[in-house]
Amino acid sequence: MNRYDKAFKEEAVRLSDEIGPKKAAEQLGVAYYTLQEWRKRRTLHGDGAHIGSGHAYAPADKTAREIELEKEIGELRRANEILKDALGFFAKDRKR
């Protein structure tokens, strides 16, 4: 699967506005439906529609730092769950 950066996606969407999505997709070597998905995301999410590669998008009201912190919080919560499970396992072992 191809991954495209934010600048490429934004430029592709702009080009599709100018010359039409079919011509732009053909000219850029991108699948028509992929370009249409990018256009749809821009409509739904505005300037935050295309960050980095792949399918990720950022809501317009969140900064990159906020997104990064939310990911970190999720990782820490998962780590805490693992530690709680391990604590329970070792606590049971000590009681024997």
UniProtKB/TrEMBL annotation:
GO terms for molecular function: DNA binding; transposase activity. This is Transposase. GO terms for biological process: DNA transposition. SUPFAM superfamilies: Homeodomain-like. InterPro entries: Homeodomain-like_sf (IPR009057), Transposase_8 (IPR002514).
